Amino acid sequence: MFDLEKIQSLNDLELIVYQYIIEHLEQIPKLTIRELSAKCHVSTSTILRFCTKMDFEGFSELKFAVKKANNEPSEFEDYYASAVHVDSFLKKINRETYQETFKPAVDLILNARHVVFIGLGTSGVLGGYGSRYFANIGINAYSVGDPFTPIPPRGFESTLVVVLSVSGETSELIKMVLDFKKSNAHILSITNDETSTIARLADYNISYYMPDKKSAYADPYINLTTQIPVIALIELLAHQAGKQLSAQAADK
Questions:
Q1: Threshold 0.90, pTM exceeds
Q2: Distance between CA atoms of 198 and 220, rounded to whole angstroms?
Q3: CB 190 within 8 A of CB 235
Q4: CATH homologous superfamily of 98-251
Q5: How far is CA 71 from CA 67, 84, 216, in A?
Q6: pLDDT tens across 80-109, in order?
Q7: Which element (helix H / strand E) includes 173?
């Protein structure tokens, strides 16, 4: 229903509207534009601009599209709703036009002598996966999963720090990012929200825009937002960087 390439064009306020809509799909057809405006704390003009950027002629057409999507769930959606969003994401990243998004990130990798992955919780586990995957490609990479690891004040001029964070607001990670920046490291962040603190601190950010999910089975503060896009992005960036490194070696 929402094209990921168009989502990239949204400004900060329009992204707030997008996030609210995908997290409250069942409620949207019942809301007026003023009610949605109040819930998102944005103007009705912002909502209309969002509709236009998403190729809807107005809020009424957006509501109709949401209602139609709500009334036509597939068996697959009922089984694991996030898979629908993941499927859309994986199709988008294979498009040549969308791959322009990754070029600045690949350049950061190619210009670094060392790549450090950092993250906490599930993101920390994926940081370990990312460092190993990069190493398998031939890139000097390692991961730091301890947020209290001292960051030396110098020596990171040729280092790229890849920050993995769903919210982009984890205080321990923000401190690590600031410490790495003081040490002249470059920062690449992979987050679910490009307006987050970590995304804005980074030299470059890639966001994947998945619906925010909390645990319904245990601690409600545990984040269950799918991380399949993060794995896909890690592997895509590694392969793109590895391909260019191989080409450079062949030219020598």
A1: no
A2: 23
A3: no
A4: Glucose-6-phosphate isomerase like protein; domain 1 (3.40.50.10490)
A5: 6, 15, 23
A6: 556 767 777 787 777 776 778 899 999 999
A7: helix 171-182
